[in-house]
Design a protein that fits this description.
- With 417 residues, this protein is mainly alpha-helical.
- The protein has a single domain (7-189, 203-416), classed as MFS general substrate transporter like domains (Growth Hormone, Chain: A), CATH 1.20.1250.
- Helix content is 84%, strand content 0%.
- The protein contains 16 helices and no strands.
- Helix 10 (242-250) packs across helix 11.
């Protein structure tokens, strides 16, 4: 297994996709922070602010299964590019709506929901393409590149969004995000390889059930998804609640929310690089234990931070842990997913993440509105630690499920040499 975090960039196709993805992810974070801050300032509600983040990520749970069917039936590159074009269209509608002066959080949430659902239709195709872009020993580094892209957007997007809102207003700021999706669609269309799936026939229900059975019967995939679901229920909601936390606890607006999000992004990139290098010398099960422990403590620190500076530092540590866990767990799922049903397995993973994130942010947001966000985040930290402990106790063979695939890859590489 390669421990160089940027090794996949030696492939032209990866460079092309990753460069365009950075632009698109910057646009997404511009939108998330700008619209979230508008809603937070207008409503002062954690739940309503959380709806913006929920609409961005929840469609994974609604549209990803359909996207998985498409990924295992049609040429994956075309499915991904078509979804991006549709997402660009819906983002253009959002920009126009803001330009008309509409600020109702439910109207904005509905438009974002439709745009994100469009993106979720293509996400399984992109995830299923990744193992065909790089050798098996570079898979974890490939997943890490996505984290670097997403969190580069998290760093640059909020700061850029703050500047753009002040200079051209919210509508033209969101229009930038629409253009970014077009840029990524263009990059996808320029790929030289085709990504034709080898899935079987059958009805929609049979294929969906087949994807679920593949996930459930593959130990590495099942345990990887279980950890991701737990994380999305307990820890990840803090990200979507950054605008209201900055506003309610420190009186900050888009600028402070952007700084906290950017700090989280810096930490995420550092965590991604670190875990990619550590995975060569440490078992993934050991990495997961350490990540959960550090993240639980850090979430408590974030909740109790007395100053904006302390919050930003805690957010950076949380970002590091979140990225490390996502990379570790999702790489396990991609590593072990059967090739003929990979699109559906990845769709099931994304669906589970989307649904659990939706439940998590509504739960943590509701607790925050009732007794305060600080207490809500502490409850999330305790839930993460206790939930992971319960998961490891219930599944006596969880370490074997997590680590077995890496042993197989190493053996295959030794034979190849």
């Amino acid at each position: 297994m390669s421990n160089h975090p940027f090794r996949p960039l030696r492939h032209r196709s990866v460079r092309l996709l990753w460069g365009a993805a950075v632009v698109s992810d910057i646009g997404t974070w511009v939108q998330l922070i700008v619209v979230g801050s508008l809603v937070a300032a207008d409503t002062g509600s954690a739940v309503k602010t959380g709806l913006v983040a929920l609409a961005t990520f929840m469609p994974q749970g609604l549209a990803s299964p359909v996207g998985g069917l498409l990924a295992d039936r049609y040429e994956r590159r075309r499915v991904f590019a078509s979804a991006l074009m549709l997402q660009a269209l819906m983002t253009g509608v959002l920009a126009t709506t803001l330009g008309l002066g509409v600020r109702d959080p439910f109207v904005l949430t509905a438009i974002i929901l439709l745009g994100s659902a469009s993106g979720a239709l293509g996400a399984p195709s992109y995830a299923a393409m990744q193992p065909d872009l790089v050798p098996a020993d570079e898979m974890m580094a490939m997943v890490s590149l996505g984290v670097y892209s997403w969190n580069s957007g998290r760093i640059i997007g909020p700061l850029l969004g703050t500047v753009l809102v002040a200079t051209v207003g919210p509508s033209w700021t969101i229009a930038f995000n629409a253009v970014s999706f077009l840029a990524l669609a263009t990059a996808v269309s320029l790929l030289r390889s085709s990504f034709v799936p080898h899935g079987g026939d059958g009805s929609v229900s049979e294929r969906l059930v087949g994807g679920w059975r593949a996930l459930r019967s593959t130990p590495g995939c099942w345990h990887g998804v279980a950890v991701l679901v737990l994380f999305n229920l307990t820890m990840v909601p803090f990200m979507g609640l950054i605008p209201i936390f900055a506003n309610a606890e420190f009186g900050g607006g888009t600028g402070l929310a952007g700084v906290i999000s950017s700090a989280q992004g810096v930490g995420a990139i550092a965590g991604g690089i670190a875990v990619t290098m550590l995975a060569v010398v440490r078992r993934r099960s050991d990495l997961l234990v350490g990540i959960v422990a550090v993240t639980s403590v850090s979430l408590v620190g974030y909740a109790l931070a007395p100053t904006a500076l302390a919050v930003a530092i805690a957010a950076a540590i949380l970002g590091s842990g979140a990225a490390a866990l996502f990379i570790t767990s999702s790489a396990i799922v991609q590593r072990d997913a059967p090739p003929h049903s990979r699109g559906r397995v990845m769709a099931m993973m994304q669906a589970c993440m989307g649904v659990s994130y939706g439940i998590g942010i509504l739960t943590i947001g509701s607790i925050g509105d009732a007794i305060g966000l600080r207490a809500a985040f502490v409850i999330g930290a305790v839930g993460l630690a206790v939930g992971f402990w319960a998961l490891t106790v219930r599944s006596a063979n969880w370490r074997t499920a997590i680590d077995a695939g890496d042993t197989l890859v190493k053996r295959q590489l030794e034979l190849a040499r």
